[in-house]
Amino acid sequence: MLEAVRSNLTDLSARGLAEAVGRAVGEGTLEPGAKLPPVRAVAAELHLSPTTVSAAWQLLRRAGTIQTDGRRGTVIAESRTSGPGRYRAALRGRTGFTLDLSTGVPDPALLPKLPALAGLSPAPTSYLDEPVLPSLASLLRSTWPFPPERLAVFDGAMDAIDQIASALLRLGDRAIVENPCFPPLLDLLEALGVEPVGVDTDDEGMLPSRLSAALSTRPTAVFLQPRALNPTGASWSGERAARLAEVLARNPQLYAVEDDSNADVSSRPLFSLGAHLPRQTIHVRSFSKSHGPDLRLAAVGGPSSVLDPVLERRLLGQGWTSRLLQHLLLELLTDGPSVAAVGRAREEYARRRALVVEGLRAAGIDLPAGDGLNLWLPVADEQSALITLASAGIAAAAGSAFLPAGGPPHLRITAGLIAADHAAIAAQLAAAARSPTLSVPR
């Protein structure tokens, strides 16, 4: 077994050993279920220190390449396809509900209608044409929260974050995330073999003091949501953004990735770290919730040192995001009726959320006003609350999937989908929140 590793071992560090084992697994010379020798035996055979081997094993565990299997010891893990496991768990069992408040998606009735396109989109005459339509780039730059050195368009926010994270992070790295945060981000980091470090939040997002303490873990990147944090609805104030920037400025090699997922349907002003740290900030603006999930478009602005390698690597794959879709987005952003429709949606989401929050307060549950489509409902017991809501025909998302660092039980409720009967639904949410832990008969 060690011969297969030795033939791939060119770097005698922990990372080099982890990569050698990974290559052996990829080549098929180390098969799933194969038992690894004890750490000291590996160290002696490969002329490495036990500390180096232990560190390599830790990297491989985080990447899911090896696992501890009881009395069998450490073995090569069964191959698996990484996917949104946490998010699927949070949304499990959603069929048959009268009102599904688990999804976090926009209300289709509030999306703008597609305008009639005046002629065809400017078609590329070459694979080397500009990947972003110049007219769209000009419009985006005029509304960006800081002057971006490089601007790009990707196939949705998670596509952008995936490609940026893949460029910035390596096996065994750590990345700071909000606690709670969006589960697909945690699934993505796990797929990359990156350890998430959850930092607590309050009504204005990530806490600067907790972020400062988390920097002792030597992270490579920080992922944050500047407004309408999914799931809590928290948004930064100007002071909070400045304090977070002050903490990150002490680590100029650390990049911050901002995910403005609600963007045009957010009712709060946008405060960006890029206004303070333009060389450390990559800002992602999604158009899914405002203009349609199937549009699959997000804009990204940030330092060229980060985005240029990503865009060059992209030329080996999809190359660029469809200019036809970019032309459609440009029309939606400039067409009068479309702009008005997005404005009405923004007001309606704020109204719906305010009515649900008001109803919860009347029932004795005081939540911050917040922003966006979701609210973070504290409950006595997660499973009991889900069952209570299910009995009323209401689905919600389990909060545990959103908590990388743990915390009190919650449910994520997509208040933006509650179009009517706000007081009655708020009363049902409050009743579910107080449902005691279910006792299991013996």
Automatic annotation (TrEMBL):
Q: Write down the InterPro entries for this protein, in alphabetical order.
A: HTH_trans_reg/aminotransferase, PyrdxlP-dep_Trfase, PyrdxlP-dep_Trfase_major, PyrdxlP-dep_Trfase_small, Tscrpt_reg_HTH_GntR, WH-like_DNA-bd_sf, WH_DNA-bd_sf
Query: Lineage of this protein's species?
Result: Bacteria, Bacillati, Actinomycetota, Actinomycetes, Micromonosporales
Q: Which Pfam families match?
A: GntR
Q: Does the keyword Transcription regulation apply?
A: yes
Query: What keywords appear on the UniProt entry?
Result: DNA-binding, Pyridoxal phosphate, Transcription, Transcription regulation
Q: CDD domains given for it? A: AAT_like (cd00609)
UniProt-recorded name of the protein: GntR family transcriptional regulator
**In the record, what terms sit under GO molecular function?**
DNA binding; DNA-binding transcription factor activity
Q: Which organism is it from?
A: Paractinoplanes toevensis
UniProt similarity note: In the C-terminal section; belongs to the class-I pyridoxal-phosphate-dependent aminotransferase family.
Residue ranges annotated for the HTH gntR-type domain, each copy included: 11-79
